[in-house]
Amino acid sequence: MTNSNPVSLNAYEYLDNVGPEEQARLAAVRRYRLVDQPVEDAYDRIAFVAGAIFDTPIATVSLVEQDRVWLAACQGLSGVREVGKEPGLCASVIAQDDVYVINNAAVDPRTLEHPLVRGELGLRFYAAAPIRTHDGYRLGTVNVIDNRPREATPKQLKALEHLASMVSDELELRLMVIRSAAAEQRMRETVS
After folding, report:
1. How far is it, in rounded angstroms, from Cα 131 to Cα 98?
2. pTM score
3. Which of 99, 104, 97 is nearest to 53 (CA)?
């Protein structure tokens, strides 16, 4: 069977790319110390609002790691915290600055062979905005998923971008707390 998907040849090369740019992006993901942590209310609320705006059954806040996609929050998929190394939609989003939309994945050449489209989930609609740090790294996405095709309005897509910016702001607050705690620890060790 030949694959007629023109994007598929190198569409997910990020998974094996550990060049300097990807190393810097991964360092940015890790500096927030959110991967492998329990769900925090702020991210859970953002995922909930994203799903409500689009009226989709699934919405997530994700961080793209080297070998997996970590779900910092997930509405609509009980117990799912990460997606494996297989090709992922979130990775396509972090490769660009704009909102990424698939109205009908069953006929979109970018997703015809995707496991979430062909598998049990039956993904048909996907919209995601990249989470960009203040220093320019794209860490992950705020995304919405449905098992039926649909169109997104410009207002919904703008709202998704704002939610991604809110995640970025929350991450910066988290980083300030991490740095403050580290500085306090260093001070205590100096005094001791």
Report:
1. 10
2. 0.85
3. 99
Q: For residues 169, 171, 174 and 175, what is the CA-based torsion angle, rounded to 10 degrees?
A: -100
d(CA 101, CA 86): 20
**Cβ-Cβ contacts under 8 Å for 170 (sequence gap 6 or more):** 42, 43, 46
CA atoms within 13 A on the CB side of 11: 19
Determine the Cα–Cα distance for residues 126 and 128; give it in Å rounded to an integer.
7
CA–CA separation, 42 vs 157, rounded Å?
20
Q: How far is 103 from 100, CA to CA, in rounded Å?
A: 10
Residue of 39, 105, 134 whose CA lies nearest to 77: 39
Q: 75: Cβ–Cβ under 8 A, 6 or more apart, which residues? A: 44, 47, 48, 50, 51, 58, 59, 60
- pLDDT (tens digit, 0 to 9) for every residue of the chain, 192 residues total? 333 333 334 444 444 557 899 999 999 999 999 999 998 999 999 999 999 999 999 999 999 998 889 999 999 988 888 886 566 688 888 888 899 999 999 999 888 888 888 888 889 999 999 999 999 999 999 999 999 999 999 999 999 999 999 999 999 999 999 999 999 999 989 988
